[in-house]
Amino acid sequence: MNINILRSDKIYRDIIACPPEEKAELYRQRMLAPFMKKWDIQQIPFRAEEENGFDVMTINNMAHLAPEMITPEIESELEMISSDKLWDELNQAMEYSLNQFTKQGIDLPVSDYLFTILLGNPDSKILQLSEGYSGEGGIPGYIFLSLIPNEYTLKRLKSVLAHECNHNVRYQFIEWNDKINLGELIVSEGLAENFATSIYGEDLVGPWVSKTDANTLNHVIKPILKENLEITGLQQIMQYLYGDEVTKLQGLPTVGVPHSAGYACGYYLVKYYLQKTGKSIVEATILPADEILSEVKEYWNEETILYR
């Protein structure tokens, strides 16, 4: 297993020091180009064919600092992600998460991993909804965390990294295709967050779970999601997975569920599955969603009690 750490703090400092007209290209080449295979798999152009067209920079600027924002003004935030100790600890945390699978005899098809931290834009509504931190790890071999650095978010970095490592492992075994449905995404998010809490404890469960109360889960989220588990198409799925607040930001019709509805539902569904079957979170991570869902049909009608 080879974990490559892209020290974004050093790249940010190089961009701060360069002339304004060179910032965008330097950012594209140093920060985004190492993830080229990920962009290709996601069919996101690395460079738009026309000026201001959709490409990797468009995606970056939705939640992260745009190149023109990388100035001496961000020095205090940058300092918080600049210690060797932090990067070493995250390297070890990532290795520990992946080793949970290899030590159980699960041979991971991917051996090379790339990881970095991107500084979040404090004005990003999407990042604000997740209390200043999130991650992306669904493309095997590639993980980045999005972060508005402060005491609260830094404390949760290892937990969200474990969450993304779980996604990274799952999609080495579960093929992503246009038939992926809402049920798969609910299960996937539930597996990832249960994996993270199995290592770091429920005190660090993400806000995508902790903000949901029992009444909302049982009487709003579960009834709506239960009837839509088979829907496909990423745009339609995301309306149920992310909830109405994100849907509104994207200019899409709402479906009547709160923020991160699918995440909260998935977390308690997978917890229910693990308790019922006695399987470990490591075993469950690489199982087809249909196999998990078929074991927990009663979950949808039972009252889930939140333990935190």
Structural class determined from secondary elements: alpha/beta
Helix percent reads 40-55%
User: How many domains make up the coordinates?
Assistant: 2
The count of DSSP E runs of length 2 or more, i.e. the number of strands, is 4
What string, H for helix and E for strand, traces the elements in order?
A: EHHHHHHEHEEHHHHHHHHHH
Shape: globular
The count of helical stretches stands at: 17
Low-confidence stretches: none
Protein name: DUF2268 domain-containing protein
Pfam family, one: DUF2268
Distinctive features:
308 residues; alpha/beta; 2 domains; 4-stranded mixed β-sheet; 17 helices; 7% strand; globular; DUF2268 domain-containing protein; DUF2268
